[in-house]
What does this fold into?
Amino acid sequence: MVRPNKNSIKICPRCRGNGYITIPNKSVVQPGKEVTLQCPMCNSQGEIDDPNDTIIIDADGTHRVQ
It folds into this structure.
């Protein structure tokens, strides 16, 4: 894999560089437990190549402008 420009690599704001996120499980079977998933924003890499810095963090969460 060819690495992009080092200045354009940013740590993923959703997983904070871990590559995974935990979300609360509100199902009836196991209430109160957390589910661990791979981060969809950085594809579990922990870093994103974002030369234009198109990530917006607002009250609704983290969004990427496309």
User: Anything to note?
Assistant: The mean pLDDT is 77. The two ends are 23 Å apart (CA to CA). DSSP finds no helices and six strands in the chain. The first strand starts at residue 9 and ends at 11.
